[in-house]
Amino acid sequence: SPHPFGQAPHLSDDGGVEVFESGAILLYLADKYGGNDTPEKRAKYTKWVVWANATLDPICFGHGMSGTEIAAPNKAMDRLEGILGQSEWLVDNAFSVADVAVASYLNYVPVFFG
Predict the structure, then answer these.
(1) Among 92, 95, 93, 102, which Cα is nearest to 44's?
(2) How far apart are the C-alpha atoms of 81 and 6, rounded to whole Å?
(3) What pLDDT, in 10s, does the model give residues 99-113?
């Protein structure tokens, strides 16, 4: 694997671009193909990708994959549920990498712990 730690995910794109880690791959693809050409536009989805990686990983998988804590009382999950209760999508009422970043964590909980 071209990933420096021999892991997945890894993306090899046109022109020899190598990107690893899911959040970095999502941000790269959004920058390259998403038409978000200003820092202000990129900030709308970047904050969600970073939040998902930093916050949802320990909630969904536990520290060191010790088990999900998603059913435990949690302010972050309560707030996310409130946000998604008001809008189907996280950014500008449209599907984006922000939704992919958040949903991917939530989707894998039943796969690993179901």
Answers:
(1) 92
(2) 35
(3) 999 999 988 888 777
Concatenate the DSSP letters of all residues of the chain into one string: --STTS-S-EEEEGGGEEEESHHHHHHHHHHHHS---SHHHHHHHHHHHHHIIIIIHHHHH-TTS----TTS--HHHHHHHHHHHH-SSSBTTB--HHHHHHHHHHHHHHHHH-
- The single residue listed with the structure tokens 């958040």 is 102
* Pair 25, 17: CB distance under 8 Å: no
| The one-letter amino acid at 35 | G
Write out pLDDT tens, residues 42-80. Answer: 999 999 999 999 999 888 887 766 677 877 778 999 999
Q: How many residues does the chain have?
A: 114
Token pair in block for residue 108: 């894998």
Q: Which of 40, 31, 23, 30 lies closest to 102 in space, CA to CA?
A: 23
Rounded Cα gap, residues 51 and 47, in angstroms: 6
pTM, 2 dp: 0.85
